[in-house]
Amino acid sequence: MIEITCNDRLGKKVRVKCNSDDTIGDLKKLVAAQTGTKADKIVLKKWYTIFKDHISLGDYEIHDGMNLELYYQ
Amino acid sequence: MGSKKEHKHKKESKHKHKRRHRYSDSDERSRSPSVKRKRHDRERDHKSRQSESRNRNGAKIKTEQPDAEVIRAQIPEVARTITPKQEPVEEQKSESLSIDETNKIRAKLGLKPLDIGNSQSEDGVKLNSDENFVHAPAEDLAEKKKQEKLREKIMESKKKREIAKKMSKVRTLGEVEEDSAADWVVKSRMAQQQREQDEKMMKLGDEFGVSDLIKTELGSKSTAHDYTERDLAGLSVEHSLESFREGRNEILVIKDKEILGSDEEDVLHSLNVDDVEKSKKNMEIKRRGVGYKAYEEEEIDDMGFFKAKVVLGKYDEEIEGEQITKFKIGASGKVDASWVQQKEEMKQEIRAKGESLSLPPLKLANEYLTEEDMRFKKRKRKVKKSRKREVFKADDLLPLPGSSEGLSNHGSRFVLCEKEQYLPSYSALRMLWNSTKPEDKSGTNDGESSQMNNKDERNVIEDDDDAINDLQRALDKSRRAKQKKADAAADEGAQKVAQHLHNLTRVKLEKPDEQFTNTLFLNATDEFCRQLAQVPVKQEVKQVEDMDLDEDNSDEDDTQMSKWSSVNPGQENIVKFKKSLKKLTKFSVLEHAPIEAEPLAANGLMGALKLAERKGYLQTKREPFFQIKFPKRVYIFSKYYSIEDKNAVDYLDKYAHEKYSKERNASITVDFTEKKDYKPQISIEYVDEKGRNLSAKEAFRKLSHRFHGKGSGKMKQEKRMKKLTEQETMLHMSSTDTPLNTVAMMKEKQRSQSSPYIVLSGAGKTLVGGSSSVKK
Fold first, then answer.
1. What is the pTM of this model?
2. So where are chain A's domains?
């Protein structure tokens, strides 16, 4: 289990617990559950990389305690 | 946190000097949270407002999609329920759910629960997870080698065992001997006994006279154990059937086998045939060579299909193994070779069906024409038998030589002319053709040439190879073609000929200019001519005949022509027309030549000669063996060909002036077209008052003096005069005298003085002496 922090810099910051073999899509759903924004409206980014839904966190090398940027589309 | 602080305290005791700093640091820390908290309060307010709005949003969602997605709809609720609990978490600036809660959500989302605690510890051991990645251990080479060695050892021992097992079955030579030492004695004894018995039997047989019978019996006994053809049945021979020739014995031996080889059955082979085959194979290899051949012909298999080749031919054996041909000896020890023949026949059949795509072999092109190329392709000509005319016609008489001589006989001409109208015009047209040949200007030649034609035809058949004859053939051909046309026309009566003549003249009159010049002249004389042409032919011919009177001997004598000559002699076209007309009339006269009277031998020597000539006793003209007849050049030229008159000016041309003025200027260098061979050699000679030829220098001086109106001075003139006279004297000087004739003068003086000496005087002194004294 890892815990990831997602922050849009507009006042929303959530810490999400998830598995490293979860996909980004799953993470988005979890974030959606916590923030109340629809999952398909969420974009997760790290620097200029937009994470794709079907790829797992492990493959993106997203580890425990990492910060992801949260954007909306 | 507490433990850390304790640790810090320990550290502080050690590093006291740092303490203050630390404290200050902690002070700052203690100060900063309060500031932060204030900020947080503000934030919290903001957040609560946000959450309210969010809640409102959630409600909205709920109302909008009541049962579309249960999970989605419930999410905001969860969030709502969580938020109050998360007040302390919010202090960490971010919302976070507990594991249980997240698991609940995950369950609702259809995801597997989080792996926590014990599972994490298990995962810790898990290989290749992100946290504890462990490389696969490197290969132990030593271990590997050991294993390999062991394996080899095992294999070796296995093989050994197998061989030993095999050998155990085979009796060795020593064993055999050892085994049968006693046996052998027994056997030999038995054999000896048998032999003795046989001999006894034979002796008995001899006594009773049945030795033959016994022999056969004994023989059969022995042959029963003999090795016969039958024993060979089923054995295979390792040669192709073709290698055995009929009527030749081959000794076949059982082929050696590998000692350790697999249990193959025995195979027969012949050493001789083996050798032959080997040598054949070597030859084949030599023939084919080893390397790559780009243009090798494709091989064809037994069935006539092309063999697809993947690699070079030399690897065939390595890949497929040696190709061994075998055949089996059938039952009763015989081989049926008929199927081989059948197979061969079938192959032949298949091959015959196939069409080879191979082109004829490439040949290096020659740069030059070879002798073969240059050789004429002889067309085999059928020797046509000249059709013999059954009907005797007037023109058969025509080609008699000397027929034209009668032309001079003016008396009969009129009658002849009138007759001509009613005679078949074939001959007339024929003559028309003949007249076109260059030689045929006079009637005599005409007749001869027609004879010559016949000769030519004969020649053609006789010697084919001659290039000149080829030419002649071509000429003949064209001539005959023309004649054919004429023949066709000739079938109609004389009326038609008259019409034709009429038309001909008309056409020539109407469009004469197109043939020769591009301009059309219309003047009174032309009109006159036309009028004449339109007069019925009969009369016209008569008229022309009248004129021909004078012309028979001199063709070019146009001026002597009575009426026609008066018609604008400058007009070239009209003159030509006249000439053509003249010819026409000539033929008509010629046609009647055979009927003319023979010259009388009694008239004198001339008459006799003429007669002799006509009869053929006298040959006036030597004819070459073959004659090349070139038609008049006029006929070679195209009908529409004309020599452009460069000086002609098209006055209707708008830009004529520019065009022609330019050309005129340039045309100085243009040579005369009408006098091509006229190349005059010009040398200008200047002569002085005395008629002496001047050199270029002198001539120039004279010209320049005249031009400037000023001659050379007196002195110079005198000098030149002196020089000239000197030159002249030099020219006239005799070889035995000086230029001033001193010798002659001295002699003259001697003669006048009548003395044998002469007085040489000079510079006040006078020497007197004779010739002898002078010598002294």
1. 0.23
2. 2-72
